[in-house]
Amino acid sequence: MIEEPPLLKIRRSFPRPDAAALRALHHVPTGFVVDCMDGRGALDYRIKPLDQSSCRFSGTAITCHAGPADNLAVFAAIESAQPGDVIIAAADGFTGACVTGDLLLGMARNRGVAGFVTDGLVRDVEGILYVGLPTFCLGVTPNSCVRNGPGTVGLPITMGGVTIDAGDVVVGDRDGVVVIPRDQLAQVCDKLQDVKEAEANLARQVRLGRDNLDDIRELLDSDRTQYID
Questions:
Q1: How far apart are CA 76 and CA 71, in angstroms?
Q2: Domain with 64 in it: what CATH number?
Q3: Comparing C-alpha atoms, which of 180, 160, 165, 173 is closest to residue 47?
Q4: Do 87 and 64 meet the contact criterion of CB atoms below 8 Å apart?
Q5: Residue 4 CB neighbours (<10 A)
Q6: Of the candidates 84, 86, 97, 83, which has an alpha carbon nearest to the alpha carbon of residue 64?
Q7: What residues pair up with 171 in beta bridges, in sequence order?
Q8: What is the pLDDT of residue 2?
Q9: What does the mean pLDDT of the chain come to?
Q10: In whole angstroms, what is the distance from residue 164 CA to residue 159 CA?
Q11: Contact, 53 vs 79, CB < 8 A?
C-alpha cells in the first residue's frame, strides 16, 4: 500500500545571496541584468506586471510549487519569507483558476515580501492595486482556487522556461522578470558597471544623432555582405 504523501514539503534553510550584491541590483533595469548573463535569464514574455506603474522589485527568491488551482504552498511560502524576499509561485501555467487574490497578497506585504511572481492567474485586481505589492502573472480571472496541496516550498521549480531555486535573485520591471542564479550573482555584479557605462555612452550618442553602429556599417561594406541590386 502506498503511503499518503505529505501535503507540504518545505526546505526552510538554503544559501542566501550576499546583501551588498542585492543592494547593487536595486533599480537596475532587467535588460541590464540580462546583458550581464549573455542575453538570457528572463521568464516567458507572457508573465507580465499587473500594474505597470508599480512593478519594480529585486530580492531573494522564495520558490513554491502550488500546482494548478491550489495555493496552499503560497501560504506556506509566506511563513518562510523574510523581509525583501520575492515569492515565486509555480502553477504549471494553469489558467482555469487564480493562484492568489488581494487578501493573500496583503498578508505577503505585511510579512515584508517585495514581490509576487506566478505563471498562473490572479484575481481581485482593485484590491491588489490597493495592496501595492508588485505582482507578475499570466492574467486575471475571477475563478478561485483551493488550499488542498500537495505543494513544495524552498525547492527548485521551473517557471516560464527557467529553473529557479530558493536563494536565487529575481529582478522585475515593466519588461518582465529576470532570474539570476545565486552562483552567478557575483559575476553579474562585476559586469554591471561596464554594462551601465556602455548603455549610457550609446544612449548619449543616439541623442546626438548616431543612426547605426560602426561594426554594422563595416559588415555592410565588407565582402560578407552581398548586394543583389
A1: 9
A2: 3.50.30.40
A3: 160
A4: yes
A5: 7
A6: 86
A7: 58, 178
A8: 76
A9: 95
A10: 7
A11: no
* Grid coordinates of 147: 488550499
Which pLDDT tens digit goes with each residue over 43-65? 999 999 999 998 999 999 999 99
Res 148: pLDDT: 95
Q: Does 199 have pLDDT greater than 90?
A: no
Total tally of structural domains belonging to the chain: 1
At which residue does the C-alpha cell 522589485 appear?
57
Task: Give one DSSP letter per residue of 37-104, joined into a string.
Answer: TTT--B--TT-EES-TTS--EEEEEEEEE--TTB-HHHHHHHHH--TT-EEEEE-TT--SSEEE-HHH
Phi/psi for 70 (5° steps) reads -145, 145
Question: Which neighbouring-strand residues pair with 135?
Answer: 116
Residue 71 covered by a domain: yes
Q: What is the pLDDT of residues 144-165, one digit of tens each?
A: 999 999 999 999 999 999 999 9
173 lies in a domain?
yes
C-alpha cell read off for 165: 531555486
- Residue whose grid cell is 495592496: 131
Expressed as residue numbers, the domain containing 33 is: 8-184
CB atoms within 10 A of CB 56: 18
Task: Quickly state the pLDDT bin for 203 (edges 50, 70, 90).
Answer: confident
Residue with cell 496552499: 72
